[in-house]
Amino acid sequence: MKYMMMMNAPGGPYQVSGWSEDDFAAHIAFMNGFVEELGQAGELVAAEGLAGPDLAKRVRAGDDGTPITDGVFPESKEFLAGFWIVDVESPERAYELAARASAAPGPGGAPLNMAIEVREVMSGPPDDLV
Question: What pLDDT is attached to residue 126?
Answer without folding.
Answer: 73
